[in-house]
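Dear support,

I submitted the protein below through the web form. The confirmation email said the job was done, but the results page showed an empty box. After a refresh the structure appeared. I'm attaching both so you can tell me whether what I see now is the final result or a partial one.
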Amino acid sequence: MAAGNVWRHLEERRLTDGRGRYRCDMCRNITELRGLEPPATADEVQAAARQFVRKISGLRQPPATVDEAFETAVREVAASVHRLLDALPARRQPPSTVPPLRRPEVRARVTG
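What the results page shows now:
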């Protein structure tokens, strides 16, 4: 196997479960919102959507030339998340992590 093929093969094995299906590993910066008590707020959904768009775009602060497209993407992702959360059945157990906006140290930083 040529060197390039070896690396591609290793990368495919890392990303798939061995049967060709992609693994469901999530970005470690985005927390689960389904099953929270009280339910996820609009601010929490918006923050998760913004983090997702930042991650896939590679932009923390978009330049002015693409700011409108970036913000449109955040709004569209947030709307999709709201629809998804509304459609999913209730969870038996809450998520294992607390969303950042529910952590006192993050709340103080955001509001302070």
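Response: this is the final, complete result; the empty box was a page-load delay. The mean pLDDT is 81.
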